[in-house]
Design brief:
The protein is of the alpha+beta class. It has a single domain (36-182), classed as Lipocalin, CATH 2.40.128.20. The chain has five helices and nine strands. It has helices at 2-12, 36-39, 53-58, 160-172, 188-195, and strands at residues 41-50, 65-71, 77-85, 88-98, 104-108, 115-123, 128-135, 146-153, 180-182. An eight-stranded antiparallel β-barrel has the order 1-2-3-4-5-6-7-8. The two termini are 25 Å apart. Residues 1-25 and 187-197 have low confidence and may be disordered.
Length: 197
């Protein structure tokens, strides 16, 4: 269950986490002139793509989760995510620290102790955000680099055009069609998830 929690937190991180500037790390662009204040507020994790074998095994049971992004005193972000686990709402908070240019953050996985980098690649602030997460040599992947693309949306059900944009983004990061999933709403649990935020 600790691995499940760790993956969810990684998936939730608008992405979706620590800077590892090595030659092996893929270079992704960042949102030009990223404005952190416009990025704050409530987001739904609506789409995911990952190279994690755990993700491939569990993607059919994942559902939309809610994240609230708030500023920290040091210029980072508090990411408080609420998700459904075993038919109960759970809430977790991660601290995303500034890690380079605006739109780049890092966090340390509470389970594996690995540093992850999260890049806000593209956002219009009002409807969607595309994030890319990377961690070098993740223990949970047998030393393989962890990669994830995340679609954050302000609405639980993003428009078809936004889904197409995310699919194109994920494929550009090397993810195949079977590694891309759009998360279903959680019905009554979803209402409970978002009602208190």
């Amino acid at each position: 269950m600790a691995a499940l929690h760790t993956l969810w937190m990684g998936l939730v991180l608008l992405g979706n986490l620590g800077v590892l500037q090595t030659r092996a790390q893929p270079q992704v662009s960042l949102q030009p002139n990223f404005q952190q204040d416009k990025f704050l507020g409530r987001w739904f994790t609506s789409g995911l793509a990952s190279n994690s074998s755990w993700f491939r095994e569990k993607k059919k049971v994942l559902s939309v989760c809610t994240s609230v992004v708030a500023p920290t005193a040091d210029g980072g972000l508090n990411l408080t995510s609420t998700f459904l686990r075993k038919d109960q709402c759970e809430t977790r908070t991660l601290l995303l620290r500034p890690a380079g240019p605006p739109g780049c953050y890092s966090y340390t996985s509470p389970h594996w102790g690995m540093v992850h980098e999260v890049s806000v690649v593209e956002t219009d602030y009002e409807e969607y955000a595309l994030l890319y997460t990377y961690a070098e040599g993740t223990k949970g992947l047998g030393g393989q680099d962890f990669r994830m693309a995340t679609l954050y949306s302000r609405a639980q059900s993003p428009r078809a055009e936004v889904k197409e944009k995310f699919t194109a983004f994920a494929k550009a990061q090397g993810f195949t069609e079977d590694a891309i999933v759009f998360l279903p709403q959680t019905g009554e649990g979803g209402t409970n998830l978002t009602g208190g935020l």
